[in-house]
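My current task is to audit a protein record that another person submitted. What it holds is a sequence and that sequence's fold in token form. Thanks in advance; the entry in question is below.
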Amino acid sequence: MASSTAPPTIADPPEEAQSDGSKLRTFIGILKRFIGVSDLAAVRFSLPSQLLEPTPNLEYWTYLDAPNAFVAIGTSDEPLDRMLEVCRFWFTKDLKYVKGRPCKPYNSCLGEFFRCNWETHDNAPRIDTSPLKAANGTLSGTASSASSMRSAKGDKNAPAVSFTVPNHTVATPAGKPIRVSYLTEQTSHHPPVSAYAIYCPERGLTARGFDQISAKFTGTSVRVLPGEHNLGIFIHLEKRDNETYQLTHPAASLGGIFRGTLSVSVSDMTYISCPKTKLKTILHYIEAGWLGRSTNRVEGIIFRYDPDNDDKVNIKDVPESDIVARLSGPWREKIEFTVGPKPFDSHPLEERITIIDLAPLAVAPKILPPPEKQKENESLTLWSGVTNAIHAKQFGKATQVKQELEERQRELARERERTGEAFQPVFFRQVVGNGGQPELTDKGREVLERVQKEDWSLDGIL
């Protein structure tokens, strides 16, 4: 009698992984084809799977690598202190670049979406600059206590005060975590744009924006800039009379391509503005120093401005009388601030306050929906075949699955073109536009509210 047992399934064997040098040579060979192309991101070229980070693009770009810095925004009563809270968040939003290495996640598919939670603690020190606002920017009555703090540390040169955030895992005495929820959707394919919303009702905090990058290969580095629809991150403080802060993204460069040591550098301006408080921040990222040595420093000012005549784009353009604080330090390490218009270097050490020390921080983990609760166009499910193959070092299979996904997207695009049907996002009202601030649809609000309750069901929504 013949056996009815099915033959055993033979898994694809793992392939020999490329060395870093081999990967880089492959990467350079691909980039050379695009010298002179005005925007690499618009071309949407496909990299071999062995050059990709096994992470969907929508999961990778969230700006909440340190969620405890985000939930601390709006804590302080003074406008200057709240602006400093926003600056502190800004310096932590991309810890992955400080702690990790540059990488390329998957390109997003039109209609793809991602959702998650973070649970963090209210452990960021409250920023209070009132003792620093005495005449001539001195510490006034706190100088003696500042000196004693340094003595207790055994280091007379240690900063007097630190407002840096600890790791997100450090619990407060109450120990109750704060939940932050996130939803993003790919709203456009040409140009590639995604919309996102961040939701923390306990703190009356929301944030939103469009993500889009523009990239150009110069022959020695890749220059990355925000695309025309990416007007920055818009943070809204419901409990502070609905203040809104706009945080614009600087240009960055991926260098070290021919040295074989990829690195990210920034040499551009970031602007953080709040029309309601009439305070604005200019952060100048300085890449090169004396004799071309890399410094990776940032120098900044916070100043009073006129929202109806917002024409100050460089630090040197701002009258000293309008400056209320200055910031300085290496953006990969520790950044300090001083209060008042005096140049940063003219302040003694006890007047230089640490706003963030990135050295001890780690990227916060996300809380993800279980696989059985995910839809087929949800990032982690959509790309699971590619991710699993890359982790198994089955790069040929990963490339095949990736190409099948990409061809499916082309088929859907051809069908929309044939029928004349325009793509409409499910969770956001705008594909692009609206001043860079996408609005949630009723379905989008419902999903975020469910995620906030850790209800991953999409029944009745999709």
